């Protein structure tokens, strides 16, 4: 009879490995890292349940894609500190289209998204379109140290207590939100957003 200690679970299919699961942080904030998104949990859960959820996400190919609340929600309002020390408000962008990326320093896919947005910023930012980055759940000094080595071409705000991200129902990073000229949500997506989708969303939000 095969000894219990000799039984092994079937290997995870590429590109996943047991290393990916070992690297996952099963705590109050992070559940697992997988291509295109980082799933976040805001309530402490049983580690066994969290592990099972992570495996299902990995094997099932679920992307945690958020459905856009565009056209159904009131204008988004916020007031957050920037890394420069000043406060930035939604009203500062009245009459303009605003793209906001929610991210964290530990989120590898967020860096890919930031590269996509940097190219779009160079192409589209101006009198009609503005860009912001909002760090989620980290203190300003942690974010500031990261940004020193990987600067953003647009302002970085700090949502250290998850106030705005919780109010918007953001549970995965990166998440990109586009607000129209009236500060209403025109695009809202978790996971990597391609440049083509964002370019289209920005143009439509200008109408």
Detail the poorly predicted runs.
Answer: 4-34, 41-69
Could you tell me the strand content as a percent range?
Answer: 15-25%
The largest sheet has its strands arranged as 7-6-5-9-10
Order of helices and strands: HEEHEEEHEHEHEEEH
> Which secondary-structure class do the elements indicate?
alpha+beta
Task: Count all strands and give the number.
Answer: 10
Span between N and C termini?
A: 70 Å
Radius of gyration: 19 Å
Separate helix tally: 6
Mean pLDDT: 76
Which outline best applies? globular
Major sheet description: 5 strands, mixed
* Helix residue percentage: 25-40%
Observed structural traits:
five-stranded mixed sheet; alpha+beta; 10 strands; globular; 207 residues
Describe this structure in words.
30% of the residues lie in helices and 23% in strands. With 207 residues, the chain is of the alpha+beta class. The longest helix is centred in the middle third of the chain and has 17 residues. The chain is globular.
Set out the fold topology.
Layout: H1 18-23, E1 30-34, E2 37-40, H2 47-60, E3 79-81, E4 87-89, E5 97-103, H3 108-124, E6 129-136, H4 140-149, E7 156-159, H5 163-167, E8 172-173, E9 175-179, E10 185-190, H6 195-205
Parallel strand pairs: 5-6, 6-7
Antiparallel strand pairs: 1-2, 2-8, 3-4, 5-9, 9-10
């Amino acid at each position: 009879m095969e000894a219990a200690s000799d039984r092994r679970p079937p290997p995870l299919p590429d590109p996943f490995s047991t290393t990916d699961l070992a690297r996952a942080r099963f705590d109050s904030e992070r559940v697992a890292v997988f291509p295109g998104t980082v799933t976040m949990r805001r309530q402490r859960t049983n580690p066994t349940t969290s592990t099972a959820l992570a495996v299902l996400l990995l094997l099932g190919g679920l992307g945690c894609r958020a459905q856009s609340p565009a056209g159904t929600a009131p204008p988004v309002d916020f007031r957050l500190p920037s890394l420069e020390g000043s406060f930035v408000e939604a009203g500062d962008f009245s009459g303009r289209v605003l793209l906001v990326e929610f991210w964290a320093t530990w989120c590898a896919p967020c860096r890919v998204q930031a590269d996509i947005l940097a190219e779009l910023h160079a192409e589209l930012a101006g009198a009609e379109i503005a860009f912001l980055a909002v760090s989620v759940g980290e203190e300003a000094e942690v974010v500031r140290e990261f940004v020193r080595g990987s600067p953003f071409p647009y302002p970085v705000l700090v949502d250290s207590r998850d106030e705005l991200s919780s109010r918007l129902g953001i549970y995965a990073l990166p998440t990109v939100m586009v607000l129209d000229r009236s500060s209403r949500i025109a695009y809202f997506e978790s996971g990597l957003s391609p440049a083509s989708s964002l370019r289209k969303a920005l143009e439509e939000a200008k109408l």
